[in-house]
């Protein structure tokens, strides 16, 4: 299922890229996105995993070359083993291992050999692929044993071997390091590691294992018997969780005013939904972002203004008459025109030069909006992320989506958050305001807001310690025998007196909350209310969902029914209800099976297949050639039927031996 989806993504991504023909648009993309170091998923993945990869490199340096201490190795036969906890973001495992291989190649060993576990069925399949040297004899396959490897190890100085295994991708990597240069060729070694055998050679040939695990370290004990796992001295290394990965990517790519390209709330929800409910892949998330960007530049002619501020202003000065007219038809610009005076409205609708001048000012305002939006968003998230039940969301992406799609201050969740902030203790409020001040200091903008925050912090710290007044009853209860009605009356009277007399901290806390509320109303307005927001914001969530979150079965049926859509071969174009003999065998067999009922007669199916294949053939062929060609057709038909069964369209049935049962209905 995942493979079908990924292939479909790649096809859509390439098609969108190929359709970008505007040189200015292509220049903008190259300048601000593809050439930017943060947009590449490999670089992002390396940054997220830098800490754990560096720890693994130190582990290998520490225990490689037989340098591990006797205290660490409890027994001489134990093999140093690192268990790398990668989580369930399976599509990124291969990239993580490639990064680890590159890191080890740069910092530990220049020799790296990668093999697939499925190709290593046993030590017998060890192979050496090396050019024949004058003094080196090539080993036969039957000679490729652990003993032979140890003998080879003794011929060089200070080599050690590292094995990296990833269960999800069935990858094993073999590392070879030499302490001196003997001018040897890189060996291509392929073999399955027998732990019991290797444990007997640890003194002669030091091994280090690195296992990639998706769930928990107990998977090693579940996969290996105790007699084997007891020979591994395991140290666990943890990578970031998938949600931490997503948060880091969000901060780098989405919540960043340096990137002019933006996503609407619904597009973000689609990308986050695919991440959380499908693959947990940072790589695929970044690819989805890239696809959104390409679709935006392809479908929005005014996306030429989606670039850095100075270049956007320069482009606005040279807008063509056609693009000026397009600006006039933007919904956000039409709303802007409606708010202006009658004379200004006439100028905006008739004077192209005036529209260009106004457009430049609106672009400045849009860039300023983004520059102020993100720091205030981070401050609000810092204040509310620790509140009970997380009324505005636990993650900043949830708060961001709420802010850009509607007026946040009109929601019940926002009112609930303010109510909780109004009962914070002094130390909690001061700590939260300090975090906000640090955020504003790092951005070096909104200095007036920073100054007011620091003023509130100073005034709060100056208050006396006994002025918190956070209890419901400030005085001591006088315990006396009374009825329930009298007790309730007394409590209500004391609560009423308390609400009327606010202590200094409560007054100051109320002022702080009102100040925060004013910041939200001023800076966190919805993006769709900003004039010319269509220039930067991609909002076609339906297209994105169709391309990235497709139903695999629907995609397969569409490809088999209309192969021209994917292969772009003119010979595959057919009229409705016809079958082209040039189509792939699987497509022909699929279309023929759509005409059948619940049970399909294999002989009739074969005859129909041969008829389609023979439609365009030359009839002037001798019988011997026809017999050979018919045998080839039968073989191709059998293979296509097997593929149909593998895809889940048919299955064998016991009702009739020469029939198969159809499993799907309503094909494309």
UniProtKB/TrEMBL annotation:
Biological process per Gene Ontology, one example term: DNA replication initiation
Protein's name according to its UniProt entry: Origin recognition complex subunit 3
MF terms (GO), sorted A to Z: DNA replication origin binding
Subcellular location: Nucleus
Residues of the Origin recognition complex subunit 3 insertion domain: 317-540
Domain Origin recognition complex subunit 3 winged helix C-terminal, chain residue ranges per copy: 553-665
Organism: Cyprinus carpio
Gene Ontology cellular-component terms listed: DNA replication preinitiation complex; nuclear origin of replication recognition complex; nuclear pre-replicative complex
Family label: Belongs to the ORC3 family.
Tagged with keyword Acetylation: no
One Pfam family here: ORC3_ins
Ranges where the Origin recognition complex subunit 3 N-terminal domain occurs: 43-305
């Amino acid at each position: 299922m995942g493979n079908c989806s990924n292939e479909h993504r790649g096809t859509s991504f390439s098609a969108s890229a190929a359709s970008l023909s505007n040189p200015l648009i292509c220049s903008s993309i190259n300048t601000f996105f593809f050439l930017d170091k943060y947009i590449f998923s490999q670089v992002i993945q390396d940054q997220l995993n830098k800490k754990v990869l560096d720890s693994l490199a130190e582990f290998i340096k520490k225990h490689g070359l037989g340098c591990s201490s006797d205290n660490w190795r409890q027994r001489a036969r134990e093999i140093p083993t690192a268990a790398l906890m990668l989580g369930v973001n399976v599509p990124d495992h291969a990239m993580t291992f490639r990064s680890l291989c590159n890191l080890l190649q740069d910092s530990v060993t220049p020799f790296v050999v990668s093999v697939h576990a499925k190709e290593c069925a046993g030590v017998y399949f060890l192979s050496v692929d090396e050019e024949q040297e004058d003094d080196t004899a090539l080993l036969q396959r039957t000679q490729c044993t652990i003993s032979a490897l140890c003998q080879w190890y003794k011929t060089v100085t200070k080599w050690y071997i590292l094995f990296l295994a990833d269960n999800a991708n069935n990858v094993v990597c073999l590392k070879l390091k030499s302490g001196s240069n003997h001018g040897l060729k890189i060996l291509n070694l392929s073999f399955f590691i027998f732990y019991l055998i290797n444990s007997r050679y640890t003194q002669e040939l030091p091994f280090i294992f690195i296992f990639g695990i998706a769930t928990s370290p107990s998977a090693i004990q579940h996969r290996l018997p105790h007699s084997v796992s007891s020979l591994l001295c395991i140290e666990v290394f943890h990578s970031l969780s998938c949600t931490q990965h997503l948060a880091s990517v969000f901060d780098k790519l989405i919540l960043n005013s340096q990137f002019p390209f933006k996503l609407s709330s619904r597009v973000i929800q689609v990308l986050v939904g695919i991440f959380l409910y499908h693959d947990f892949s940072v790589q695929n998330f970044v690819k989805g972002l890239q696809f959104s960007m390409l679709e935006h530049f392809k479908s929005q002619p005014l996306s030429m203004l989606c670039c850095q501020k100075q270049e956007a202003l320069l482009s606005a000065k040279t807008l063509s008459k056609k693009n000026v007219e397009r600006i006039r038809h933007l919904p956000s610009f039409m709303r802007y025109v409606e708010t202006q005076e009658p004379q200004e409205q006439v100028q905006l609708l008739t004077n192209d030069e005036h529209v260009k001048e106004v457009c430049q000012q609106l672009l400045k305002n849009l860039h300023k909006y983004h520059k102020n939006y993100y720091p205030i968003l981070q401050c609000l998230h810092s204040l509310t992320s620790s509140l009970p039940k997380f009324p505005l969301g636990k993650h900043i992406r949830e708060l961001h989506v709420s802010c850009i799609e509607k007026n946040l201050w009109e929601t019940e969740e926002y009112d609930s958050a303010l109510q909780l902030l109004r009962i914070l203790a002094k130390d909690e409020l001061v700590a939260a305001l300090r975090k906000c001040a640090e955020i504003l200091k790092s951005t070096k903008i909104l200095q007036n807001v920073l100054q007011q925050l620091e003023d509130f912090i100073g005034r709060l710290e100056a208050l006396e310690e006994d002025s918190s007044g956070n209890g419901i009853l400030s005085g001591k209860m006088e315990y006396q025998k009374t009825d329930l009605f009298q007790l309730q009356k007394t409590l209500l009277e004391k609560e009423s007196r308390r609400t009327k007399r606010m202590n200094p901290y409560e007054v100051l806390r109320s002022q702080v909350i009102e100040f925060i509320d004013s910041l939200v109303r001023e800076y966190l307005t919805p993006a769709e209310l900003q004039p010319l927001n269509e220039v930067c914001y991609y909002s076609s969530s339906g297209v994105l969902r169709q391309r990235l979150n497709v139903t695999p079965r629907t995609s397969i049926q569409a490809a088999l029914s209309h192969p021209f859509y994917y292969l772009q071969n003119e010979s595959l174009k057919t009229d409705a209800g016809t079958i082209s003999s040039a189509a792939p065998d699987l497509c022909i067999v699929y279309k023929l099976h759509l005409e059948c009922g619940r049970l399909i007669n294999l002989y009739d199916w074969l005859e129909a297949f041969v008829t389609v294949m023979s439609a365009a053939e030359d009839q002037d062929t001798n019988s011997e050639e026809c017999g050979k060609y018919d045998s080839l057709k039968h073989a191709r038909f059998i293979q296509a039927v097997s593929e149909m069964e593998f895809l889940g369209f048919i299955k064998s049935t016991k009702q009739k031996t020469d029939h198969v049962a159809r499993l799907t209905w309503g094909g494309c």
